[in-house]
């Protein structure tokens, strides 16, 4: 936790450059990814053309180390892209590709350049297994149904596992391209081992959580707007339902949750980029808070639209399914609270 | 975006040392004990010492301001009356007649003149524009009749920043006039009200109080505009975005919760359960503590009206949970045998409830969020424009 004698800034505002990044990707997703395109990509949850287009804009490559083709962008810039990706529910493996590319750049091995380039250029996906490998126990891997390579932690080893073809889609409520991967088989390449492996994997997982938290905050903001807009024009008893406190106050609660989650996520990204050891508890905080905000926002956004909100025709159901779908991939979001508590136990004296 | 540590150069270090010295000298255990006993939000010697330092309205750069603010807060300095004085002073500087301004300003800066907020009325609650306290012109004077509640610090102040009704026949926001009413005036009667949070506030009765026109602030029936400045600052803060200001007006309450949380962590590390283990060894305990730490961090990072609601609810929920966790000893007040860390958990639990009411209830803030952040239509409420029951005002 923060030291009492240390004076820190608490400034969440975006610089002009950051605002330009945010706006550029907001425009891209706004133009290229209407909800019709999100629906068209179901049930796989992957749009090859959109993914290629996004990668060409540098969404993944910009935050690679410069020798690996990076552009000096930080995790904060990546987070701003992730917020817009989440807002649009874009059917692209942005977070997995970005995190895995950065991991491969940190722990390169013979031939990994090809996999890194595939992620950076949007041509071939290598993704990340979010749970440690247990022998003989396959796990659901995000992006796993559109990837031919997965990086994961097996014991003390950071391993890369490849397949001739992506495994079959595991159809799921979140309409994400999940698939079962068994990373304990023989055909795997060790990229790092021991502390280096564990450290790099832990870092990648933290980045995945922060970026996914950003996507969840963007999703929550979008579904909140959908709900709020509906209540401005839907009338009951002669008044717009948004003027009724029973409707307006739950939406206000969502605004409170979204505003908090967005800032907390940005702060976690900043620390992960600039001072990763100073406030490690911010990552579980951001993830738990964003997951909660998205879950609440989706439920309220759906509910204020009444029966319509519950129909498949309504776009809020797209947000509703992904809010949960993205939140549970890395495990129980409430388990993050234990990580925060562990840190408290170790640092408060 | 910037969360970096401010580099304290020699001059800033010297200032921080000066502040520490000031706090040690003037925010003593006796001052804190008196505050716990009286809940007055004020200590005359401390206030005068602030004046001697030029800190009633400090003309300091932003880093120094922040160092000063956080040090005073961490020491539990009783400065509620200072904060109301500052809020009113901006309206005085803008709207008071030149001679009144010239008379008061040096006294305020020296700590000799202090202001409180005469807003709320017994049946008005957060709807302060519904004020019924009447001011009627009589030559060069006004005759004030009515009653205010929650005039916190009236017993410490020389003037109250009073909302009065000067025209009950027009929509409620258009018939208000503000006064800086001297509390010494005959007909003003101050009575204490004590809160479950340990604060002393007041009911103030105004019976045929004659106040010269020179104490009027701004135009007759133009009071709402005069009030807006201080009210917006009370609702939203001053709006600095350099990372050296709070994002919302409840941040000091969130920091109180952080101190309570730290006290509970220390309890969990030292207390023993019947089986000999420490509570902190239990993951369910660490999850609960983690939840509260998350709430505090999120509350401090949530801006504006959203943050104000988030802080209050964080404090109400979290302080209750910490009491559950620690058990009955968490309810022992400061100074009693066996109380935990100066009774901070007892205090926070009681104090929390008021934070959802001060300066407008959390429902008022949800209305603000709904209308001004989400752009939802205004509620159509009977009496939203009219002054309900104006004819019965005393």
Automatic annotation (TrEMBL), chain A:
Domain Acyl-CoA dehydrogenase/oxidase C-terminal positions: 204-343
The EC number(s) this enzyme carries: 1.-.-.-
InterPro entries: AcylCo_DH-like_C, AcylCo_DH/oxidase_C, AcylCoA_DH/ox_N, AcylCoA_DH/ox_N_sf, AcylCoA_DH/oxidase_NM_dom_sf
Cross-referenced Gene3D superfamilies: Acyl-CoA dehydrogenase/oxidase, N-terminal domain (1.10.540.10), Butyryl-CoA Dehydrogenase, subunit A, domain 3 (1.20.140.10)
A Pfam family this chain is assigned to: Acyl-CoA_dh_1
Cofactor(s) named in the record: FAD
Swiss-Prot/TrEMBL keywords: FAD, Flavoprotein, Oxidoreductase
All residue ranges annotated as the Acyl-CoA dehydrogenase/oxidase N-terminal domain in the record: 15-95
GO molecular function, one term: oxidoreductase activity
Record-linked SUPFAM superfamilies: Acyl-CoA dehydrogenase C-terminal domain-like, Acyl-CoA dehydrogenase NM domain-like
Family as reported in the entry's similarity comment: Belongs to the acyl-CoA dehydrogenase family.
Name of the protein in question: Acyl-CoA dehydrogenase family protein
UniProtKB/TrEMBL annotation, chain B:
This protein's record includes keyword Cell division: no
Residues annotated as domain Acyl-CoA dehydrogenase/oxidase C-terminal: 248-374
UniProt-listed Gene3D superfamilies: Acyl-CoA dehydrogenase/oxidase, N-terminal domain (1.10.540.10), Butyryl-CoA Dehydrogenase, subunit A, domain 2 (2.40.110.10), Butyryl-CoA Dehydrogenase, subunit A, domain 3 (1.20.140.10)
Domain (Acyl-CoA oxidase/dehydrogenase middle) ranges: 116-200
Chain ranges passing through the membrane: none
Family matches, as Pfam families: Acyl-CoA_dh_1, Acyl-CoA_dh_M, Acyl-CoA_dh_N
SUPFAM superfamilies for this protein: Acyl-CoA dehydrogenase C-terminal domain-like, Acyl-CoA dehydrogenase NM domain-like
Range of residues in the leader sequence: none
Keywords linked to the UniProt accession: FAD, Flavoprotein, Oxidoreductase
Acyl-CoA dehydrogenase/oxidase N-terminal domain: residues covered: 10-112
Cofactor annotation: FAD
Family membership: Belongs to the acyl-CoA dehydrogenase family.
PANTHER family hit by this protein: ACYL-COA DEHYDROGENASE (PTHR43292), ACYL-COA DEHYDROGENASE FADE34 (PTHR43292:SF4)
Protein name per UniProt: Acyl-CoA dehydrogenase family protein
The species this protein was found in: Phytohabitans maris
